[in-house]
Structure formats: C-alpha cells, structure tokens
Amino acid sequence: MPEIQQSDVLYTAVATAENGRDGRVATADGRLDVIVNPPKEMGGSGAGTNPEQLFAAGYSACFQGALGVVARQEKADVSGSTVTAKVGIGRNADGFGLIVEISATIPNTDPATARALLEKAHQVCPYSKATRGNISVTLA
C-alpha cells in the first residue's frame, strides 16, 4: 500500500487521553472533550463514551464520505443514505481485538447497485484501508 509522505498531509488531528479507557480524551483544538469509561459489559460505569464508540463514529462518517465519492464517479444517487458502523471488542489470542460491521441504507438505488457502491467505498475509505488485514470488517 502506498504510504503518504509528510509533505502530502492535508490535515492532522491531535487528541490526548488521560487515564486511558477510564478518564478523558480531548482534541488539541478543544472541539472534542469527552469523558471515557469502559462500557458496563466490560466492568466499567458506562457513564461516558468509550473508544469503540468514537471509532464507530469516525469510521461511519469517513465511509459515508467515501460512498459519496464513488457515487459521484458512478453517477449514482446516494442522497438520503446513511452509514452505520458497529464496532465490537472482544478477546482474541493477543488479548483484545476489534470487529466491525458497516451497513448502509441507500434509498434511491437497487440492492445490486447499493452493494457495488459499498464494495467500491470500502476500497477507497481511509479507515477501511487502515484496518484492511488487521481486523474483520463486513459490509451489509
């Protein structure tokens, strides 16, 4: 996979975490500042958000953007569409790992076209590229 050179970077997000999964995370620009806690299913209070929710939010937004890019290329109508990312965390041989399911509702296309658009979006989405070969990602 081709690497991005520092001179090609268009934007860099910076976030700092305090106390890991049971603390706080904030972006350098102050636009995001949230309490993070493990979910109740993992023994936490569930009072704040958690890294899996933040990852799901970022992945779904990025994938929706990629869907728009491929729809424009294919001259397909994805207006009114939504993308949902379900991010699971569980034990694996190395300790813990993630699993992702990306689903989309695309009201103005037939199922075959919608599936083709999802497959193409999965090829261009930066989150999909970053996770490819590292975690299980399924499309629905």
TrEMBL record:
What Pfam family is a match for this entry?
Answer: OsmC
Gene Ontology biological-process annotations: response to oxidative stress
Sequence intervals crossing the membrane: none
**Family classification:** Belongs to the OsmC/Ohr family.
What name has this protein been given in UniProt?
A: Organic hydroperoxide resistance protein
Organism for this UniProt entry: Streptomyces griseorubiginosus
